[in-house]
Fold:
Amino acid sequence: MGIIKKVKRKLNKHCWCSLYGTKSEEMYKKNRQLLDEAGIDYRVWMDENEPGLVFCRNYFEDPVKYRRHYNFYVRSADYKEGCRILNLDDGGLFGGISAIFFLL
Structure:
């Protein structure tokens, strides 16, 4: 029987990680302000055709409220600090929050 060795992966600090997503414009403004005040570099991906958003528009029949889906991305070096600022339970880098990585 072989020995299973755990390997800890080290992420490039220049990778961008998905931090948070919201359908509410009020939460988008609030979280943007919190990240600005903390001095964390972030990017926001705005999607008007995200499947969950389209479902909410049709199901709740409120297209004005569900106009955009906002996804916040931060650099992997700032991920834990971003979770702390937004009061998110990070559950580790691959835990409770989906972590999607991409390079610029």
Notes: The first strand starts at residue 16 and ends at 22. Residues 25-38 form the longest helix (14 residues). The CA atoms of residues 34 and 85 lie 7 Å apart. The radius of gyration is 16 Å.
